[in-house]
Each structure stands twice: as C-alpha cells, then as structure tokens.
Amino acid sequence: MKLPLPLVAALLALGLGACNSNAPADKTPAAAAGAPAAAPVPDTKKRILFFGNSLTAGLGVDPEEAFPALIGQKIDSAKLGYETINAGLSGETTAGGRSRVGWVLRQPVAVFVLELGGNDGLRGLPLSATRENLQGIIDTVRRRSPGAQIVLAGMQIPPNLGQSYAADFKQLYQDIAAKNQVALIPFLLVGVGGDPQLNQKDGIHPTPAGHRIVARTVWHTLQPLLR
C-alpha cells in the first residue's frame, strides 16, 4: 500500500525524534509516573563576608595584601574552617552598599563584616542617611542570613567639615552597634590613620604594612566570634 507523502514525512519526523531523545527507552513505573526529585543538599559552608569600600577592596595593594586576605590566612593557619569573601568595592557609599547587599547575600554567611560610611563622611553626606543605610544593610543581613554574626567597623573623619559633624559621625557607629547588639570595631584604622609611613600617597589608603595592622585590629574583634 502506498502511503500519502505527508503521512510518510510525519512518521519520519517521529522516528528521528525518538532516536534523538536522551530519555531511556525502558522507563521504570516510578520514573514514568514522575518520582519526586531528591531533596537539595543544604549549604553548610561557613563564610565570612567582608562588605565595604576601597579599604576592604585593598585599593593600591595586591589582593593578598589587603586585610580580608590576611584574615583569611590567619583562619587557614588556625584551621577554623571558614571561607573568606572580599566584597569590597572602591568608592562605595552606604547607599550603594544598601542597594547591592541583597545581591551579595545570595548565599548564607556565618559572619558579616560591615565597613562602610567613610566615603559618606568625606563627602559630607547627611548623617541621618548614613545611619538609615547602615541600619538597612544590617536588617537585610538578618533577613537573608538570620544566624549570621555581624561586625561593624567604625570609622572616623578629620574635622574638615566641623568638629560637631566629625564627633556625630564617630558616635553613630557606637549607636548602631548598641541598638543592634552587634560587635563593634571602634575605629578600623586605629594606629594607621594619619601615619604617612603606613598610608599611600593619598593619605587615606593603607600600605601593605598598614593593612597588616588593620588585620590585627579586625582579628581582635572577629576571633572570639568564630566557632
């Protein structure tokens, strides 16, 4: 019997489709019925996320010389089992950090080190906005990683914009830390800020030697939180 050409073409297409299929020809009843997929493996990796501006990013030094990498070396030497992530971004303000923190926290973290606000202070931005943005970042961390320990790195600025502004800027970190009951590094650049020998030519960003001092300052607050 001679088949019509359209029917022949349809049968050929079905045959080619079956040959190209990756599915096994002999399915078990459970597979054919759509057995439930295996439950996803929970993410148990312990991460320390450093979230900040150019100080965290290590502007002007090699990545391994920036204080987050130095902290990572201390953790590896002590075999504490944490992975360190440097999420520093040069030029970042608290507003910028607040807008990107949700994207950065796509994976859960065990410890979140928040180092932002310095660029706000140097630009003379309203302290009410800085305070609101830092609070917003902390709220996002607690929503995305409820069990995370938070470390707030305090900053200070020179009195170029007035003694009152500089004093209020310093105080806001203490206020936020107390309100949220988070660990506070009173001044990230203690022993480094203002020292020409420990800063690059811009007088703001630490040299490798300066980063080593910053790492010790951070480690003093961070180490007791690591379990």
Short synopsis of the structure:
This protein is an alpha/beta fold and 227 residues long. The protein has helices spanning 5-20, 29-32, 54-57, 67-78, 94-104, 118-123, 127-144, 163-180, 208-222; strands at 47-52, 83-86, 111-115, 149-153, 183-185.
CATH topology: Rossmann fold
| Average pLDDT taken over every residue | 87
Structural class: alpha/beta
CA distance, first residue to last residue: 80 Å
Any low-confidence stretches, pLDDT <50, length ≥5?
1-32
Q: Which superfamily, in CATH terms, is the homologous superfamily?
A: SGNH hydrolase
In CATH, the architecture is 3-Layer(aba) Sandwich
How many DSSP E strands?
A: 5
**Strand-residue fraction?**
5-15%
Main-sheet strand order equals 2-1-3-4-5
Q: What's the CATH C level?
A: Alpha Beta
Number of domains: 1
Overall helicity: 40-55%
Specify the overall morphology. globular
Total helix count?
Answer: 9
Order of helices and strands: HHEHHEHEHHEHEH
User: Biggest sheet: strands, sense, closure?
Assistant: 5 strands, parallel
Keywords: Signal
InterPro entries: Ester_Hydrolysis_Enzymes (IPR051532), SGNH_hydro (IPR013830), SGNH_hydro_sf (IPR036514)
Protein name: Arylesterase
Pfam families: Lipase_GDSL_2 (PF13472)
